[in-house]
């Protein structure tokens, strides 16, 4: 009896603890609540869990927001929110922002909108994690956004793969996309979805364009070409005028199961058996079940003579002297495909612990086997290496005996010489660095003293790398004309190469209207700013009379070099232009709101928007920028600097500037991007209207589409174009208080359903006798007030 009573009491205590755990675990995030590090949401029945995880398992790794099975001991995420935007500084915080959108923020407070694909219509939203693994953002009973519409690499029961919103401008394609490696959630090389040309076919694509059909709808059921326990699943296929997709459900009374597209391109079928998770690889090759998945994608050449098309794994590392090429953007499966397709490739390997990065070895395989270094990585060598490595064992031992004997004699001499050279180099480097630091410190102190001290109590911690003039001269081929990229108000800009990386070098001209104040601004401001839409300052030089700034190199130079060039502007289709508008807006938002200091750029124009190799915009030239205190709203200056056409009326006429001055310049840039016309040269002869007035008249008359750059006619969405015109006109209104903030601009651009306010008449609508001279069009410094432009 006593044992029974003890057992009964134990069961009751267990049930109470379990119920208490269920009560404490929350499945919903409400406005005003945060989900931080080591905090999670758990679905109502404890099936799924949402929280932050790191790709490498250490505090210095990249951090992501993901969903995983609660009972999975490995916590392998089935969905990742920010796979292309990892948090690098620290684990983030998930919250529902004031506007109802789910955002992830880190220490830098730069928000990542989780539901960017469908923004919240109001602030009255909540986020709930379901037992299906679906994360919902809801407004009342209405679903605003759900994670099932944006899959990662995992197909869960009830999740749909296909095409949606057919016949509309908002076509959405849902694919599974593999991870870059088994531990890095970034987009990998493989994708699974419905074929674009035959929507009854299910295919897997590799990043280089190769594909393999893995299934098809025969009119009655979905059939797959890989072996699977499909009798455990109810697959369905739906096709109608609005959508076409396939999905599956696990049959009743059977274990929970799901599918994963692995980083190597395999289909992995998982089953939850009690507290255990079982996995089986499903080959997607036709007529075989044993081959590796990557064999399906490579166009294998005729059998290579030296080792065929099989590879053997050897522990070690590639020798430093090897003939190796590779890329950090490729995974191990990409490496195998590239090496198999080229008989000159003798081996391949991944040079990162997380399975990313690709090294390909071209050369003698015997030489590679002799000099493979020590290491924990696996090198995959073509052919069976067991016999060949045995043949080299004897000669390798002889080599070691000779090398050890020689090194035992000369090693003391080498060590002594190395120690002396290191001491000498460090001493020279320290003396040089101290001399440059004294120069910079004296210069900054002099300028600060001249300006009455540091107004906002900032530390004078100029930790920007200081380079010697000789080093920069060498990098730019002694500032040769062949390396010259252009010239602005600061001075000429040159292309250079430093430590194997391309750089842009801006050298202060002695004839420049800019000088110490602008140089100081660049060093003080942009060296402290970190944002993908701001150009990076890499270093500076202050030596003799030289003042030089070193930036990251932008392959496509500036926006105006494309936008106003009749032959190059066709490369800027609507997708690129809208992306550039959004990128500039995000950069301004960081400057105005999220950077270390509130910063007003004051010289925003198309020539100061640089484009990288992928046409991503980056704001540059902070020589005219001003820092605002937390309580400051606007300031006044007697020295009006900037570029005519882009300056707001209150700044050009009265010297007043604020964040709304930058918004005005942004609006001008928007209208230039939409029309492909320069604000300082365009004039409508019939009405004496400049670009702002012309855009206003067209919009007011319902003819806004006539403003469109003719090169956009085949790529532009008319509704989105009209929305952009209205946003641009709101930004260039005469009164600063009528203009939206840059955060409002971003909200307007990202939500087509928003009813925008009607803009008032633009500033500087009528163009009178003023005609910009070539100097005024290119210079960034104009120490005069505006008298030839009439504000209305």
Automatic annotation (TrEMBL):
Location(s) in or outside the cell: Cell membrane
Where is the Protein kinase domain positioned along the sequence?
479-756
Gene Ontology MF: a single term: protein serine/threonine kinase activity
Q: Which InterPro entries match?
A: Bulb-type_lectin_dom (IPR001480), Pan_app (IPR003609), Prot_kinase_dom (IPR000719), Ser-Thr/Tyr_kinase_cat_dom (IPR001245), Ser/Thr_kinase_AS (IPR008271), SRK-like_kinase (IPR024171)
Which PROSITE patterns would you find in this protein's record?
BULB_LECTIN, PAN, PROTEIN_KINASE_DOM, PROTEIN_KINASE_ST
Domain Bulb-type lectin positions: 26-150
Domain (Apple): residue spans on this chain: 304-384
Give the signal peptide, or none.
1-25
Looking up SMART domains in the UniProt record yields:
B_lectin, PAN_AP, S_TKc
Keyword terms, alphabetized: ATP-binding, Cell membrane, Disulfide bond, Glycoprotein, Kinase, Lectin, Membrane, Nucleotide-binding, Phosphoprotein, Receptor, Serine/threonine-protein kinase, Signal, Transferase, Transmembrane, Transmembrane helix
Oxidoreductase among the record's keywords? no
EC number(s) from the headed UniProt entry: 2.7.11.1
Which residue windows are transmembrane per the record? 398-421
Membrane-protein topology: Single-pass type I membrane protein
Q: Name one GO cellular component term.
A: plasma membrane
Q: Which reaction does it catalyse?
A: L-seryl-[protein] + ATP = O-phospho-L-seryl-[protein] + ADP + H(+); L-threonyl-[protein] + ATP = O-phospho-L-threonyl-[protein] + ADP + H(+)
On whether Nuclease is a keyword of this UniProt record, the answer is: no
Q: Which Pfam families match?
A: B_lectin, PAN_2, PK_Tyr_Ser-Thr
Report the superkingdom from the record: Eukaryota
Query: What family name appears in the similarity comment?
Result: Belongs to the protein kinase superfamily. Ser/Thr protein kinase family.
Q: Which PANTHER family match?
A: G-TYPE LECTIN S-RECEPTOR-LIKE SERINE_THREONINE-PROTEIN KINASE CES101 (PTHR27002:SF944), RECEPTOR-LIKE SERINE/THREONINE-PROTEIN KINASE SD1-8 (PTHR27002)
Protein name (Swiss-Prot/TrEMBL): Receptor-like serine/threonine-protein kinase
């Amino acid at each position: 009896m006593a044992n029974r009573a003890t057992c009964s009491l134990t069961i009751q205590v267990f049930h109470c603890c379990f119920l208490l755990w269920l009560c404490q675990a929350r499945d919903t995030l409400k406005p005003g609540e945060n989900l931080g590090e080591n905090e999670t949401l758990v679905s109502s029945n404890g099936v799924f869990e949402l929280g932050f995880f790191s790709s490498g398992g250490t505090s210095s790794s990249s951090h992501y927001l993901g969903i995983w099975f609660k009972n999975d001991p490995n916590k392998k995420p089935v969905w990742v929110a920010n796979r292309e935007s990892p948090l690098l500084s620290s684990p983030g915080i998930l919250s529902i922002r004031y506007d109802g959108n789910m955002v992830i923020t880190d220490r830098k407070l730069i928000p990542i909108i989780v539901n960017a694909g469908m923004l919240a219509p109001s602030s009255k939203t909540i986020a709930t994690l379901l037992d299906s693994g679906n994360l919902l953002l809801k407004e009342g009973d209405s679903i605003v956004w759900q994670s099932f519409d944006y899959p990662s690499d995992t197909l869960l029961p009830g999740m749909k793969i296909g095409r949606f919103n057919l016949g509309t401008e908002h076509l959405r394609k849902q694919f599974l996309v593999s991870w870059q490696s088994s531990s890095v959630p970034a987009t990998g090389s493989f994708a699974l979805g419905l074929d674009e040309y035959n929507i009854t076919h299910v295919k897997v694509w590799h990043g280089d364009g190769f594909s393999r059909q893995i299934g098809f709808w025969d009119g009655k059921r979905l059939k797959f070409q890989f072996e699977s326990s499909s009798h455990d699943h109810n697959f369905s296929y739906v096709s109608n005028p609005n959508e076409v997709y396939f999905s599956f459900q696990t049959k009743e009374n059977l274990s929970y199961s799901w599918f994963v597209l692995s980083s190597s391109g395999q289909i992995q079928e998982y089953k939850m058996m009690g507290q255990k998770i079982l996995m089986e690889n499903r080959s997607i090759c036709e007529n075989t079940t044993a081959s590796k998945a990557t064999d399906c994608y490579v166009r294998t050449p005729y059998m290579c003579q030296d080792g065929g098309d099989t590879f053997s794994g050897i522990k070690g590392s590639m020798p430093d002297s090897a003939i190796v090429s590779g890329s950090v953007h490729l995974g191990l499966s990409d490496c195998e495909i590239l090496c198999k397709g080229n008989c000159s490739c003798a081996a391949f390997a991944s040079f990162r612990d997380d399975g990313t990065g690709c090294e390909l070895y071209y050369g003698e395989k015997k030489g590679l086997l002799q000099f493979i270094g020590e290491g924990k990585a696996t090198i995959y060598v073509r052919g069976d290496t067991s016999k060949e490595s045995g043949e080299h064992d004897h000669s390798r031992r002889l080599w070691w005996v000779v090398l050890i004997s020689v090194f035992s004699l000369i090693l003391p001499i080498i060590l002594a010489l190395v120690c002396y050279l290191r001491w000498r180099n460090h001493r020279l480097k320290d003396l040089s660095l101290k001399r440059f630091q004294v120069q910079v410190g004296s210069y900054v102190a002099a300028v600060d003293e001249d300006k009455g001290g540091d107004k906002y109590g900032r530390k004078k911690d100029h930790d920007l790398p200081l380079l010697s003039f000789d080093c920069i001269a060498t990098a730019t081929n002694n500032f040769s004309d062949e390396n010259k990229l252009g010239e602005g108000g600061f001075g000429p800009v040159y292309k250079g190469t430093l430590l194997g990386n391309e750089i842009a070098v801006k050298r202060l001209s002695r004839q420049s209207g800019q000088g110490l104040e602008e140089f100081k601004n660049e060093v003080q401001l942009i060296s402290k700013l970190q944002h993908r839409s701001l150009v990076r300052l890499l270093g500076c030089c202050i030596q003799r009379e030289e003042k030089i700034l070193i930036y990251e190199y932008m392959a496509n130079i500036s926006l105006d070099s494309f936008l106003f060039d009749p032959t190059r502007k066709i490369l800027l289709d609507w997708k690129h232009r809208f992306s550039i508008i959004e990128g500039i807006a995000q950069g301004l938002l960081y400057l105005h709101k999220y950077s270390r200091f509130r910063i007003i750029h004051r010289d925003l124009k198309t020539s100061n928007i640089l484009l990288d190799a992928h046409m991503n915009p980056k704001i540059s030239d902070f020589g005219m920028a001003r820092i605002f205190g937390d309580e400051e709203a606007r300031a006044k200056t007697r020295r009006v600097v900037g570029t005519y056409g882009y300056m707001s009326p209150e700044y050009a006429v009265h010297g007043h500037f604020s964040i709304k001055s930058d918004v005005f310049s942004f609006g001008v840039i928007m209208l230039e991007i939409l029309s492909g016309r320069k604000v300082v040269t365009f004039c409508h002869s019939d009405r004496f209207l400049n670009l702002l007035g012309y855009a206003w008249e067209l919009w007011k008359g319902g003819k806004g589409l006539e403003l469109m750059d003719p090169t956009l006619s085949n790529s532009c969405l008319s509704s989105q174009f009209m929305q952009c015109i209205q946003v641009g006109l709101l930004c260039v209104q005469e009164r600063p208080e009528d203009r939206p903030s840059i955060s409002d601009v971003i909200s307007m651009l990202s939500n087509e359903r928003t009813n925008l306010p009607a803009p008032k008449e633009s500033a500087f609508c009528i163009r009178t006798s003023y005609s910009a001279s070539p100097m005024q069009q290119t210079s960034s410094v104009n120490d005069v007030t505006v008298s030839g432009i009439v504000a209305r």
